[in-house]
Amino acid sequence: MAHLTVQIVTPDGLVYDHHASFVSVRTLDGEMGILPRHENMIAVLAVDEVKVKRIDDDTHVNWIAVNGGIIEIANDIITIVADSAERARDIDISRAQRAKLRAEREIEEAQDKHLIDQERRAKVALQRAINRINVGNKL
Q1: Any idea where the ATP synthase F1 complex delta/epsilon subunit N-terminal domain is (predicted)?
Q2: Both 38 and 61 in a single domain?
Q3: Is residue 80 classed exposed, middle or buried when 0-12, 13-18 and 19+ CB atoms within 10 A define those classes?
């Protein structure tokens, strides 16, 4: 049976390395499901979750919060290079919730002071915090 090899790499090193029967990601162009023998390609990832259905058991699914990056699919090897990525089991949800509140305050402050760049950065931080919370709650 054909399978995929999934590797997720950040500047801190290898975060994830397993075999899968199916992978789901969200690119800037939309949702993408990947099965073995998928065409080779490269795409830009959105800040979102990555779902990896492992080959060892049909019910074994890993969830990884990925904060953007790129995905390369080449000959059944999926390589994701991201600024940051965390497996659901490693996410500190209370820390992510504090980051969400902090980002919401920063957005409000930036809007009051008409600081467009600060608002944009805070919105990205908010999106990342929400992604981490959502993935962390998948356990």
Answers
A1: 4-85
A2: yes
A3: buried
